[in-house]
Design brief:
about 650 residues; alpha/beta; de novo design (two linked rop proteins); 12 helices; transferase; transmembrane helix
Length: about 650
């Protein structure tokens, strides 16, 4: 009998035993399932009620977090919790058959609706209050302070002191309002009203001192502003009172009602489940006795079939397995299994003989491969040492050059001032050229040092808050000499009041300076525009900085190459000035990756270029390092993108 036949007989016996056991099991299952169905329904109702109770606790926590912090995530969590409770109540309503459970669930649904309505009303009140404070009250306070400042400068010592006291009272009023909204302390509300009255009293007293033309009108305008502030404060107080009332009269009672009704359903379900559990336990005892008896007989027959298969198949196969294991471990000096008969096991034995011969040949090839691998590792170590030596050379060279170049710049400035004083204009121009060239060399040294730090992994991100509009003005002023050198105009296209940015100011500024420097180098007698705008991406604020020029441009296929280190694009400028070491755009790419942003490049030969940096308004450390790539890897966002080109005349300023 072949091995396959022996295994088939063994499996046939096992299958017959399994079928017999299955028939017994089906009979047992049919008998038990009648009791299990009722028990399972009660248990499911109890578990669903418990899940609904937990979801209610989570809903209250999420609502409390949102009312405390006002973030979108907690509101989303609260909405999901509310939907979860609604689904579980709907499930309980379908599963419950007891009229008392139906009544309790109807009350729970009504309480949940009232609770959620109160939550939405409170959220609307808070949004209205915050909007009123930001868009109405804060501008009123700012205008009032401005008007009081005019009054302070329009009179004598007394009127100046009164205007200053009124300004302090307005600021204290605003501070007490913020405290009242945050802490709900009546003392803050009283102090807020007191400071408002104090400001009005100072204004009235000022009216008796100031007689300069136009001051009466300003005092009247301040009075109107205070009246409007009073009206807004009253409305803010009303929203606070209404919110506290909703919390006490709607949220808390309805939450307690939901919990009480769900608990009532759960208690009844637990009581029914306990009764069914006792009945099921007694019935299962008899069923189990029968199943164990039949299963014992079947087990003995199965063990006999296993022993027969093991004797005729298992032992020879185990011998083959030992031989294959030895070969897998690289051992070739072991006794080979004997070749007997002409069945499948004999064929396996012949295969093991051939496998050992193959293993011996493979071992020889592995030894040769180890020799080649060792040589490659030595070459890799030499390359890494050379790269480290290059980085150390750049750092040492930069440190050695920075100090003498700084001395040259300072000496050139002193000498140029002295030559201008003596009227030696021609020599002063030459000295100015020396100073300009030294500054260019210092910038080159700084770029080399920054690149060396990036390669060594020693570049840190230093965070601070800074105004974007001021940054644009500063960058333009520092780039104007370079633009004038190439007869270019340099303008800013950005809306006023873009706001603040929390990021590395030095890296953002240097990135924009490098982009402007690059645009100036490759644009002759043209125009360069530095633009900025604030955008939203996935609910997060971002700033888009755009540098557009009318230079000669470059093909889109060269975009990735321009951001490689020590690579320079285009021909030598006609001015004859040096173009640098090819690190400007490389540093821009590294800075952008470190700050979590991305770059968009658009250009065509002869039509200019536009490079856009998109940076988060609030810095968040990147989850992983991002390489300079044109295409996304997996689901990651590419750092560098190439877009279709539009000439500057088609762009909206």
């Amino acid at each position: 009998m072949t091995v396959a036949s022996r295994i088939s007989v063994g499996f046939g016996v096992a299958l017959a035993l399994v079928l017999a056991l299955t028939i017994v099991g089906l009979g047992w299952f049919y008998a038990v399932s009648r009791d299990v169905g009722a028990f399972s329904n009660s248990a499911d109702i109890s578990q669903t009620a418990a899940d609904a109770d937990i979801a209610l606790r989570d809903l209250e926590v999420s609502v409390r977090d949102h009312l405390t912090y006002g973030d979108d995530q907690s509101l989303l969590d609260a909405t999901l919790r509310h939907d979860s409770i609604s689904e579980r109540l709907a499930t309980l309503t379908k599963a419950a058959t007891d009229p008392a459970d139906q009544t309790a669930l109807a009350k729970a649904n009504a309480s949940l609706s009232d609770y959620w309505t109160a939550v939405q009303r409170i959220i609307a009140l808070r949004n209205d209050r915050n909007t009123r404070i930001i868009t109405a009250l804060e501008p009123l306070v700012s205008q009032t302070r401005e008007k009081l400042g005019q009054l302070k400068n329009a009179g004598g010592v007394d009127s100046s002191a009164l205007a200053g006291d009124a300004t302090v009272a307005v600021l204290l009023m605003q501070e007490h309002l913020s405290r009242y909204v945050e802490r709900r302390d009546p003392l803050d509300a009283e102090a807020m009203r007191t400071e408002l009255a104090n400001a009005r009293n100072k204004l009235a007293e000022m009216n008796r001192y100031l007689w300069v033309s136009g001051t009466r009108q300003i005092i009247g305008e301040v009075g109107d502003l205070l009246a409007k502030a009073d009206d807004n404060i009253t409305r803010v107080e009303a929203t606070v009172v209404e919110e506290d009332g909703l919390r006490a009269d709607a949220m808390a009672p309805n939450a307690a009602g939901i919990a009480a009704n769900i608990g009532e359903v759960r208690r009844r379900a637990d009581g029914g489940a306990d009764g069914l559990r006792s009945a099921l336990t007694s019935s299962m005892s008899g069923y189990t006795t029968i199943a164990l008896s039949v299963g014992g007989v079947i087990l003995l027959l199965g063990l006999l079939a296993v022993w027969l298969v093991q004797r005729s198949v298992g032992r020879p196969v185990h011998s083959m397995a030992d031989a294959v294991t030895a070969l897998a471990a690289g051992q070739t000096n072991f006794p080979l299994p004997a070749i007997r008969g002409d069945d499948e096991i004999a064929a396996m034995a012949r295969a093991v003989h051939r496998l050992r011969a193959t293993a011996e040949a493979t071992e020889r090839e592995r030894q040769e491969s180890d020799i080649q691998t060792s040589a490659l590792l030595r070459d890799k170590a030499r390359a890494e040492n050379a790269n480290e030596a290059k980085t150390n050379f750049l750092v040492n060279m930069g440190q050695q050059l920075h100090s003498p170049l700084t001395d040259i710049i300072q000496s050139s400035q002193t000498l140029m001032s002295e030559l201008h004083r003596l009227g030696v204009t021609e020599l002063a121009t030459d000295v100015e050229h020396i100073q300009w060239t030294s500054e260019q060399l210092v910038g080159l040294v700084d770029s080399l040092l920054d690149y060396a730090k990036i390669e060594a992994g020693a570049m840190d991100v230093c965070l601070q808050d800074f105004d974007v509009n001021r940054l644009l003005v500063e960058v333009r002023e520092r780039s104007l000499p370079n633009a004038d050198l190439h007869d270019n105009s340099l303008d800013i296209a950005a809306a006023a009041g873009l706001g603040a940015m929390h990021s590395d100011f030095t890296k953002v500024r240097q990135a924009l300076l490098n982009l402007l420097d690059n645009a100036c180098k490759f644009t002759q007698s043209g125009s360069i525009v530095l633009g900025a705008e604030k955008t939203e991406r996935d609910g997060v604020s971002w700033f888009r900085f755009t540098v557009t020029d009318t230079g000669r441009g470059f093909p889109s296929a060269q975009t990735g190459r321009l951001f490689q280190p020590f690579v320079q694009g285009g021909a030598v400028p006609t001015s004859g000035k040096r173009r640098g070491a090819g690190l400007g755009l490389t540093l821009v790419g590294h800075y952008t990756a470190m700050l979590g942003g991305d770059i968009e490049v658009t250009s065509e030969p002869g039509q200019g270029a536009r490079i856009t940096l998109t940076l988060p308004a609030i810095y968040q450390p990147p989850a992983e390092e991002r390489s300079l790539q044109l295409d996304a890897i997996g689901g990651a966002r590419p750092l560098l993108r190439v877009a279709s080109h539009k000439p500057m005349a088609q762009l909206t300023p």
